[in-house]
């Protein structure tokens, strides 16, 4: 095995000095990003930069520009020939900067040393405005998850306001939503052919603002759909909720053909239909770009970048998720239909990983948004072309969905057989319901068991993460998740495999508190039921409303966007905290509080379950001894803690 060494020019330039080293006197595109520059296919800004480079463009990246000084970071590389590109980074800047309780985070996973404060709030807006001020005649293209999910009227949890399309607030000229490879390729081809940036009005998967005096560009293959105006939404929460159903239905089409239009003041927001999911050839091409797979050398003295450390020896095998969970933004950004890489492309990336200097033989993850959806698709694609359902597995598994795990097992086997790999883990969460025969009724039970046995015995690092999310069927229906009874079925299968193979491993379930429809009694029931199953919950999350989800629309409006019926919602911070505290029934300081709450609810039965610590007394005493030793130390969120 030969260790690969890189020179500075193997990274895209980030400074005027690095641009000069390449002998360039002008740049075609300058990309501003809220992330540190990590030249790896898991980080959107690097992918975008490499796409531009693949078209022969002279591209530079300005990572985490300083917005607090004289703003020299925005002018140091001058004016690009074609346009500026702007992204907040791999996360929405507000999710990155604040917790669910709106408290500032103390770390940024996408910054060197985990240093907080390098990414401003509403980064896409701030960067674009600064650039417009300095270079009013240069077009600005915005994209990434922040721009993508804020492309239309949306609820912003952190300001507790309804905001217009990010195009309005940022002053950007064009927005690319979703995964950007396909629209960016078309944009580059058009501008290089001499098409003015202002004429890019019919590129798929883009959005822009049009003055009401201007005519809508024509496209005979598209239908126009008007949604409620921004001003109407400001005055009518039900009108805002109505909009989301249209947006989600159009986003979930296999072959989108509807252009969405919305009035915003004296302008019209135009959202062109998206591209179909990437083909195997297209997604391979994106992952096969010449990434160094390393952070830029400029960060060597500033400490490791947490997000990179977590995934540097991992392999992402697909994009997209057909789960349709109401609190999740994956399908809204990556799409419902799965785009899977070829075995050859995955093997090529594996060969790169094993030549990294710090590789010790362990692959940290073979996964994706939902780790076991690789190569899953409709058996008859003509049926999928007509479908607009937000989920392929809720309320039941679609009879047209091929849920075979055969191809994924072949990938696991290929990685396992590599001579330089000691062990490969599946660190991403799996859809446990797809492995339960009682839920996935059309699947071959023997194949499901074979997949789980392989996963649990060979690819689990002592802990398997799954996400039942709640125990209440009413809440789970709102979440678009299966009944908790299927989690009981899954745990029986899991325990059986552990017993058969003489293994001692943990099952780590994720849960969410204060989700729409969840109340105090639901959380008490959750705590009691999971305690009786033997769980002391650690991986827990208070619901954080993020733009472009069913749950967020319900949280703000009080209505379900599909039925327009009222939804039970918890908004005040104290009640949200109270729901969250039920997760930690085992903490002695919560004992009196639990007694008071359950007495008020008249649930003495739950009190007997939660306040009987006998099963956990030994463990609690041990935990208390540990905590006394750690007094004064700052608690840390585990590196694998979940983000929504």
What is this structure's SSE topology?
Elements: H1 16-21, E1 29-33, E2 38-39, H2 44-54, E3 59-63, E4 83-87, H3 93-97, H4 123-134, E5 140-143, H5 145-149, E6 154-156, E7 161-163, H6 166-170, E8 174-176, H7 181-192, E9 206-211, E10 223-226, H8 230-235, H9 237-251, E11 258-264, E12 267-271, H10 280-287, E13 294-295, H11 306-311, E14 314-316, E15 318-319, H12 330-334, E16 339-340, H13 343-354, E17 362-363, E18 365-367, E19 377-378, H14 381-386, E20 401-402, H15 406-416, E21 423-424, H16 445-458, E22 463-469, H17 473-479, H18 485-500, E23 506-513, H19 520-532, E24 540-542, H20 550-557, H21 573-581, H22 591-601, H23 604-610, H24 617-629
Parallel strand pairs: 1-3, 1-4, 4-5, 5-8, 10-11, 14-18, 17-21, 22-23, 23-24
Antiparallel strand pairs: 2-13, 6-7, 8-9, 9-12, 11-12, 15-16, 19-20
Description:
This protein folds into two domains: 8-208 and 267-271, 3-Layer(aba) Sandwich (Rossmann fold); 308-629, tm_1862 like domain (pyruvate-formate lyase- activating enzyme, Alpha-Beta Horseshoe), CATH 3.80.30. It has 24 helices and 24 strands. It is globular, with a radius of gyration of 25 Å. Strand 11 and strand 12 form a beta hairpin. Residues 626-644 have low confidence and may be disordered. It has 644 residues and is an alpha/beta fold.
């Amino acid at each position: 095995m030969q260790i690969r060494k890189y020179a500075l020019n193997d990274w895209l330039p980030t400074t005027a000095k690095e641009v000069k080293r390449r002998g360039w006197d002008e740049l075609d595109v300058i990309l501003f990003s809220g992330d540190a520059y990590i030249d790896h296919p898991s980080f959107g800004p690097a992918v975008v930069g490499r796409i531009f480079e693949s078209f022969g463009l002279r591209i530079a990246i300005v990572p985490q520009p300083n917005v607090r000084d004289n703003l020299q970071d925005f002018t140091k590389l001058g004016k690009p020939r074609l346009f500026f590109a702007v992204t907040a980074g791999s996360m929405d800047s507000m999710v990155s900067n604040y917790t669910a309780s709106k408290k500032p985070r103390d770390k940024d996973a996408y910054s060197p040393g985990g240093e907080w404060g390098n990414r401003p709030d509403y980064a896409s807006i701030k960067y674009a405005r600064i650039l417009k001020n300095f270079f009013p005649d240069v077009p600005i293209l915005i994209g990434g998850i922040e721009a993508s999910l804020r492309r239309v009227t949306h609820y912003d949890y952190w300001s507790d306001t309804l905001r217009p399309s990010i195009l309005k607030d940022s002053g950007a000229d064009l927005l690319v939503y979703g995964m950007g490879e396909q629209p960016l390729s078309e944009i580059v081809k058009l501008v290089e052919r001499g098409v003015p940036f202002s004429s890019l009005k019919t590129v798929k998967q883009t959005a822009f603002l049009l003055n009401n005096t201007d005519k809508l560009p024509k496209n005979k293959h598209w239908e126009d759909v008007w949604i409620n105006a921004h001003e109407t939404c400001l005055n009518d929460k039900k009108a805002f909720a109505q909009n989301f159903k249209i947006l989600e239905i159009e986003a979930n089409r296999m072959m989108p053909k509807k252009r969405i239009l919305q009035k915003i003041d004296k302008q019209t927001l135009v959202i062109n239909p998206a591209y179909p999911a990437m083909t195997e050839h297209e997604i391979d091409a994106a992952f096969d770009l010449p990434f160094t797979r390393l952070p830029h050398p400029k960060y060597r003295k500033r400490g490791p970048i947490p997000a990179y450390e977590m995934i540097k020896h991992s392999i992402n095998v697909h994009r997209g998720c057909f789960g349709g969970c109401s609190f999740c933004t994956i399908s809204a950004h990556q799409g419902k239909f799965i785009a899977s890489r070829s075995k050859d492309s995955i093997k090529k990336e594996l060969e790169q990983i094993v030549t990294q200097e710090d590789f010790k033989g362990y692959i940290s993850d073979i996964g994706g948004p939902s780790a076991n959806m690789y190569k899953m698709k409709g058996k008859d694609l003509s049926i999928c072309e007509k479908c607009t359902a937000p989920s392929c597995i809720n309320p039941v598994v679609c009879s047209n969905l091929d849920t075979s795990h055969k191809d994924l097992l072949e990938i696991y086997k290929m990685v396992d057989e590599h001579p330089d790999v000691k062990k490969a883990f599946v660190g991403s969460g799996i859809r446990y319901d797809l492995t339960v025969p009682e839920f996935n009724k059309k699947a071959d039970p023997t194949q499901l068991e074979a997949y789980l046995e392989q996963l649990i015995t060979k690819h689990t690092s002592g802990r398997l993460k799954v996400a039942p999310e709640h125990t209440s069927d009413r809440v789970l229906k709102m979440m678009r998740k299966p009944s908790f009874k299927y989690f009981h079925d899954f745990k029986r299968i899991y325990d059986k495999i552990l017993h058969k193979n003489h293994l001692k491993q943990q099952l780590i379930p994720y849960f969410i508190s204060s989700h729409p429809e969840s109340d105090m009694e639901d959380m008490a029931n959750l705590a009691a039921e999971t305690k009786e199953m033997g769980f002391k919950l650690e991986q827990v999350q208070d619901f954080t409303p993020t733009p472009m989800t069913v749950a967020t629309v319900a949280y703000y409006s009080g209505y379900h966007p599909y039925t327009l019926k009222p939804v039970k919602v918890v908004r005040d911070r104290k009640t949200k905290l109270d729901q969250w505290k039920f997760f930690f029934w085992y903490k002695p300081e919560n004992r009196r509080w639990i007694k008071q709450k359950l007495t008020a609810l008249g649930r003495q039965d739950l009190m007997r379950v939660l306040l009987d610590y006998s099963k956990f007394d030994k463990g609690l005493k041990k935990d208390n001894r540990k905590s006394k030793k750690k007094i004064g130390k700052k608690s840390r969120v585990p590196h694998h803690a979940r983000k929504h």
